[in-house]
C-alpha cells in the first residue's frame, strides 16, 4: 500500500481529477497522465444528495484500478460515507476522504478507513469555517480544502480558501498532505502553494488543454517554484 511519506517526498503533487477526463477514452487519458509524470489520481464520487450532481461509483473506480498502479485518491462527496468505505476500498481506493459537513467528528471514520488498509482524509467546503476541521487535522493524513462548491467542474476559485490553507499549514504536522481542489490552474496554483498547499487537484485546467503532458509540466513547474512551506 502507498504511504504518505513516499508521496510527501514527491511533493508538490499535481493530482489529476478524472471527472474531467474523456470517459470514452479513460484508459488513454490515464496513460497520458502517467507519461506526463502523474503520481496520483483523484476520483470524485457524488451521490446527488450531498452535492447536486451525480458522477461515478464503484464500477468506475474498479475500472481505473485495472488501468493503473498509481494511488487512487477517492473523494467521497456523499451522505453516510461509513456505508461505502469498504466497497470503495475493495474497488481500489488508496485514499478515502470524507466531508466534515457530513461527519462533524470524523475520528471513527478515520479508524475504519485505516482498518481497511487505506489512508484517511478530511474535506471541507468553502463556507465551512476552518475551525470545524482544525481539531482533526493531525488524526488523518490528507486535508482537502475545496476552493469551489463541489458538484460541478469549471467554477471560479474562491479566494476565501487561501486563509484556510494558511491556518491549516500552521496547525498541521510536517507530514501532512494539504490539498486544494476547485479552480486550480495557471492563475491560481501559485497563491495556493504560497498559502500552504502541496497537492493540487486539477481537472479542466489539465484536460481542457490540447496537450495534457505540457500542461501538466507547466502546472508542476509553477507549484514547484513557488512553494514556501
Descriptive report:
With 229 residues, the chain is α/β, with parallel strands linked by helices. It has one domain: TIM Barrel. Helix content is 34%, strand content 18%. It has nine helices and eight strands. The protein has helices at 4-10, 26-36, 58-67, 85-91, 107-115, 161-171, 189-195, 204-207, 212-224; strands spanning 13-16, 41-46, 72-77, 95-99, 119-124, 142-146, 177-181, 199-202. The protein has an eight-stranded parallel beta sheet.
Short description:
The chain is built from nine helices and eight strands.
Features:
alpha/beta; 9 helices; 8 strands
Radius of gyration: 16 Å
Strand proportion, as a percent range, falls in 15-25%
- Per DSSP, the total helix count is 9
Average pLDDT score? 93
Order of helical and strand elements: HEHEHEHEHEEHEHEHH
Q: Provide the CATH superfamily.
A: Aldolase class I
Oligomer: single chain
**Termini gap:** 27 Å
Using the coordinates above, name the CATH class.
Alpha Beta
Task: State the major sheet.
Answer: 8 strands, parallel
Q: Any idea of the CATH topology? A: TIM Barrel
CATH architecture: Alpha-Beta Barrel
Total of domains:
1
Percent helix, as a range, is: 25-40%
Tell me the strand order in the biggest sheet.
Answer: 1-8-7-6-5-4-3-2
Would you spell out the secondary-structure blueprint of this structure?
Blueprint: H1 4-10, E1 13-16, H2 26-36, E2 41-46, H3 58-67, E3 72-77, H4 85-91, E4 95-99, H5 107-115, E5 119-124, E6 142-146, H6 161-171, E7 177-181, H7 189-195, E8 199-202, H8 204-207, H9 212-224
Parallel strand pairs: 1-8, 2-3, 3-4, 4-5, 5-6, 6-7, 7-8
